[in-house]
Design goal:
The structure holds two protein chains of two kinds. By secondary structure, chain A is of the alpha+beta class. Chain A is 34% helix and 21% strand. Chain B has 15 helices and 19 strands. Classes of the chains: A alpha+beta, B alpha+beta.
Chain lengths: 464, 445
């Protein structure tokens, strides 16, 4: 019998099946470098048909596999924890159809998030979910993770913008989920698939909703002398009935890192925290809401509130915000980008506690996050070569998770469980809840070969 | 096969769980579903009691159909069996509502109106307007993912559910999601239960994210004798900067109920925004109407709200025994509306038609002409023709309400597509004994 590698080579060509350990190293981790596992092979399919044929080979040989986009994920979701084959989908990057009349586009999973928005911008449209990695991350990866981004506050997560998927199941069957523009009937398997972290199958075609660009956008920068004041301003804006398109916070450590980097946006380095607040919509509403936001920020102790004068200033502010992870990544050998969610009213109570946790473990922490929806990103700068420091990082993360769950929050708002948060799952779900999830997974992947070892804890021999 | 226990045993068991005052055995006639009268109706007052009822039903293999207000009991294929109708009427508490979080957690029987009455003083709301919204429970809205014209601007209930608690077929409890607005912790099982029409579990608690309630409201009504010109108006609005929360075509018969002195075809455009933005948008629509020589009426605040309330109650004003939903690509809305009118009008004595050009949803309803012997079969032929025309164009023809004689021979849902085997497997996983609303969902799940 032919080896499975030879079979894959016969389908994809020798050069599109990598097994050389040196070259496999590039795929040993994703954006969260603390989880490293080498795959057995990486393949580069160029069509859904090649994906189907390769998946069928692996089904016959009972080999585990997973799909991978740009590898920018931050939960260890795109690593081959049990070996097996990585489907690198970067070459499936065609925009297949843009249909303005129905406000949708049909794309392959390897299309880069920002590339889609760029393709439709001249016609006056955009694709709303905008994770910070949008210049690199793929829409297929966004679907797998139900990716978020600053503009989720008004526009919702990836799941709100996906109208249909073509999916290759782990046995090689190809199915359609959702109505691709019209409603589907039956259970909402589309909604279920989005955010399943690659454990249900491989999406080979994605229908996304396009949004019309708003008539007006205003971006404000408010700076505060205390993190608590900034947090209270966030709550007050939400409580006032304003729904900004984005409401982001950056603390002093983040501002300093950004201002020392190529992403420097002219942020005040002596502020304890800044809020970047964006409102969009009709000119009349934007002007109205911006005025109220300025008042609220001032009433909550903002030292000054600036309104970006033009598109260039706006772009610079956002470059600073979205470049924050990159800027932080340069000040230490490693960066732990954490992700947790809390009810937004708990911000003033939880943020100081998170700083206290970092201080207790002697760690350098920077917070840059989606304050408007309570989605925290406490980032810890550390040196992965120092095992003792790594232990302190893990212990601090664990305390942060417990803290967020205790106040009614959850483990992850947009990065996913992946490998990184499996151990915490019992904090929010009972054994019965987790077992129900395992049974749903088994409906899609009865043999447990599709991105195994992710999302759900394994107990003894039984995945539950 | 296990047979149902004697009615008296059933009654005794249910009384022991919920108390004598909360069991009706046998069920009164008005609770019949597709002409089947349940053996009993039970009104549990706590989640524990729901669990106990299910535990008992599971052991006895009795079929249970969960019910909110009963507003949508006509929706679905005829049930294979109905033994117990489980009403959430007494589970009507708001469990948590923290305005600063813009989230809330309610029991399934909590009514939409009751909740919004609590939320409006905080200038917040759940932006749902399903048919008969004044009666609707939030559990029922979630279980049927039910929507109205506000779907255009606000989306469907599925986009607002952030957590659920469900009593499973065997009486065990399951929680999914949480109380935060952004959450990817584990699989999104909320999606499995929302819109599953009570076939996978009984929703007992639902957590929602809310929306700010805008300060100002107005509705513009454009009138014409021709669909073409109203369609042009709707296309121009959708391509403009305007942000209506509802955009709805209405046929002349529906308008005769909405605005009795203007029984003409109409396009209704609703705005909910800041005061300056509402004023601006109404002006823009007025100018648009002038340029297309369309008559325009506008309604502010309370008059606008009451107009939309009437839209939601049309089923009560028209004698309705057939209600059909066409769901098509948005660009096909007008074609589907006209095809629906053309195909169904010979079967209906009075026919109202509503369509949302932004979402591709068309509703046509009315009273069947059944005096002729073949009235039902003519309606069935019409529905079959509609389905054959629209399914190949990514469309669906869903029968939301019809007499049993039609439902017995016509699957109300239509083709569920290539993922049906997965749906069957999920049903098997969550309801292996088929006791939850058996037969009612797609492909008789």
């Amino acid at each position: 019998m032919m080896s499975w590698i030879a079979e894959l080579e016969a389908i994809l060509g020798d050069e599109d099946v990598i097994t050389d350990p040196e070259r496999l190293l590039a795929y040993e981790c994703d954006g969260l470098s603390i989880h490293k596992h080498l795959p057995s092979a990486v393949i580069f399919p160029e069509s859904a048909e090649e994906v189907v044929r390769a998946v069928k080979v692996l089904a016959r040989h009972r080999i585990p596999f997973l799909a991978r986009g740009a590898g920018t994920g931050l939960s260890g979701g795109a690593v081959a924890v049990q070996g097996g084959v990585i489907f690198e989908l970067a070459r499936m990057n065609r925009i297949l159809e843009i249909d303005y009349e129905n406000q949708l586009a049909i794309v392959e999973p390897g299309v880069i998030n920002l590339a889609l928005t760029r393709a439709v911008a001249d016609a006056g449209y955009f694709y709303a979910p905008d994770p910070s990695s949008q210049m690199a991350c793929t829409l297929g990866g966004n679907v797998a993770e139900n990716a978020g981004g600053p503009h989720c506050l008004k526009y919702g997560m990836t799941g709100h913008h996906i109208l249909g998927l073509e999916v290759v199941l782990p046995d090689g069957t190809i199915i359609t989920l959702g109505g691709h523009g019209a409603d589907a009937v039956g259970y909402d398997l589309l909604g279920l698939f989005i955010g399943s972290e690659g454990t249900f199958g491989i999406a080979t075609k994605i229908t996304v909703r396009l949004m019309r660009q708003p008539q007006a956008v205003k971006t404000l920068l408010a700076d505060f002398l205390s993190v608590e004041d900034a947090s209270r301003a966030v709550s007050a804006i939400i409580a006032a009935g304003i729904l900004p398109s984005a409401l982001e916070m950056m603390d002093r450590a983040t501002i300093e890192a950004v201002e020392a980097s190529v992403y420097a946006a002219g942020l005040p380095t002596d502020a304890a925290a800044v809020l970047i607040i964006e409102v969009d919509g009709l000119e009349a509403s934007v002007a109205y809401d911006a005025e109220r936001i300025v008042e609220i920020c001032r009433a909550h102790g903002a030292r000054q509130v600036l309104v970006a004068r033009d598109e260039a200033e706006r772009t610079r502010l956002w470059a600073g915000r979205k470049g924050a992870f990159g800027a932080l990544g340069r000040i230490s050998p490693d960066l732990m980008v954490q992700d947790a969610v809390i009810p937004r009213s708990k911000l003033p109570e939880v943020l100081p506690e998170i700083y206290r946790i970092a201080a207790r473990y002697g760690l350098r922490m920077a917070n840059v996050f989606h304050a408007g929806d309570g989605n925290l990103h406490p980032n810890i700068c550390f040196d992965g070569r120092n095992p003792e420091e790594v232990e302190r990082v893990k212990a601090a993360c664990q305390e942060i998770m417990h803290l967020c769950v205790r106040v009614g929050g959850s483990l992850t708002g947009e990065h996913g469980v992946g490998l990184d948060k499996i151990a915490y799952m019992p904090l929010v779900f009972t054994e019965e809840d987790l077992e129900a999830m395992a049974r749903v997974r088994a409906v899609f992947d009865p043999e447990g070969r599709c991105n195994p070892g992710k999302v759900l804890p394994v107990r003894r021999c039984r995945a539950f | 096969m296990v047979t149902s226990p004697e009615a008296s045993t059933l009654e005794r068991e249910l009384i022991s769980i919920v108390g004598e005052a909360n069991v009706l055995c046998p069920a009164p006639n008005e609770y019949a579903i597709d002409e089947r009268r349940p053996l009993a109706i039970v009104f549990p007052g706590t989640i524990e009691e729901v669990a106990a009822v299910l535990h008992f039903a599971y052991a006895q293999e009795l079929a249970v159909i969960p019910m909110g207000s009963g507003r949508r009991l006509s929706f679905g294929n005829p049930p294979e069996r109905v033994d117990i109708l489980l009403s959430t009427r007494r589970l009507d508490r708001i469990l948590e509502y923290e305005p600063a979080d813009l989230t809330a957690s309610v029991e399934a029987g909590c009514r939409l109106e009751a909740f919004n009455r609590e939320a409006l003083p905080h200038r917040q709301w759940l932006p749902f307007d399903p048919p008969d919204a004044d009666r609707a429970t939030l559990g029922g809205i979630a279980a049927t993912d039910d929507f109205g014209p506000l779907r255009h601007g606000y989306g469907r209930p599925r986009d607002y559910v952030i957590g659920v608690e469900v009593v499973r077929a065997d009486g065990t409890r399951l929680r999914a999601g949480g109380r935060v607005v952004k959450n990817v912790t584990g699989y999104d099982l909320n999606k499995l239960f929302v819109g599953s029409f009570g076939t996978l579990g009984v929703l007992v608690r639902v957590n929602f994210k809310l929306r700010p309630y805008p300060e100002a409201e107005a509705t513009a009504v454009l009138l014409s004798s021709e669909w073409e010109r109203l369609e042009t108006a709707s296309q121009q609005i959708m391509r403009s900067e305007l942000l209506p929360v509802a955009l709805l075509f209405s046929n002349a018969e529906a308008m005769s109920m909405l605005l009795p002195d203007r029984p003409q075809k109409a396009l209704l455009v609703r705005f909910l925004e800041t005061p300056p933005a509402v004023a601006y948008q109404v002006d823009r629509v007025r100018a648009l109407a002038r340029s297309l020589s369309l008559d325009l009426l506008d309604f502010a605040s309370a008059a606008s709200r009451s107009l939309w309330e009437t839209v939601g109650r049309l089923r009560r004003f028209f004698p309705t025994d057939l209600l059909v939903r066409l769901s098509v690509l948005p660009a096909h809305t007008m074609a589907a509306l006209r095809a629906g009118e053309r195909t169904l009008s010979p079967c209906l004595a009075s026919m109202y038609a509503l369509a949302q050009p932004g979402t591709g949803i068309v509703h046509i309803g009315g009273k069947l002409l059944t005096e002729e012997r073949d009235g039902f079969s003519r309606a069935m032929e019409a529905l079959t023709r509609l389905r054959a025309a629209w399914e190949p164009r990514r469309g669906h023809v869903i029968v939301e309400q019809a007499p049993l004689a039609i439902k017995q021979n016509f699957d109300v849902w239509g083709d569920a597509g290539s993922s049906l085997p997965l749906m069957r497997a999920l049903k098997q996983t969550f309801d292996p004994k088929r006791i939850l609303s058996p037969g009612r969902f797609v492909a008789g799940l």
